[in-house]
Amino acid sequence: MKKEYIIAIQGAVTAVVAYLSDRMGVLFPVMCLLVFSMVADYFSGMMASKREALDHPGDSNYGWSSKKGAKGIIKKVSYLCVIAVAMIVDYVIAVAAGYLDITMPVTAFFGLLVTLWYVLNELLSIIENAGRMGGPVPEWLRKYIAVLKDKIDSEYDAGDKGT
């Protein structure tokens, strides 16, 4: 490939990343982390399934299948749909606050909260996959991530009840 094409592609990618970063603010790096976590989870799940197939030869309950893979991809797309809804809620609140002359301390709340929750969910899944592959997983790490995820849930539930 010609050097000019490579430079043009790099420039286009840089422009897109800069635009998205400007528009999404603090949510952009968290979304990047989520996408990276989703890819890592998908591949670690495939490797864990392969390991289980090696441990249980001839058992169709173990191993990777395109059906399981497709379900995983559909589930991850559904995460992105829920995040999009949360971002729309943030946008609607910001626009309504602007019309009411209310100053908002943050522009992304629900989108950020939902995205962080999904990042933690993906990290837990990666840890589970590592355990399925036979890797030693520190229990404290799994518990710490689970506590963070539960903290997000409990903070929302407590706020919902007016406490």
Structural class: mainly alpha
Strand fraction: under 5%
CA radius of gyration is 20 Å
Main beta sheet: none
Helix percentage: over 70%
Gross morphology is globular
Q: How far apart are the termini?
A: 61 Å
How many beta-strand segments? 0
Return residue spans where pLDDT drops below 50 for at least 5 consecutive residues: none
Order of helices and strands: HHHHH
Tally of helical segments = 5
Oligomer: single chain
Mean pLDDT: 86
Give structural notes:
It is a single chain. The chain is an all-alpha fold and 163 residues long. The protein has five helices and no strands. It has helices at 3-24, 27-55, 66-99, 110-132, 139-160. The longest helix has 34 residues, at 66-99. It is globular, with a radius of gyration of 20 Å. It starts with a helix and ends with a helix. The mean pLDDT is 86.
Please tag this protein with its features.
163 residues, globular, mainly alpha
Fold topology:
Elements: H1 3-24, H2 27-55, H3 66-99, H4 110-132, H5 139-160
Helix pairs in contact: 2-4, 3-4, 4-5
TL;DR?
With 163 residues, the protein is mostly helical.
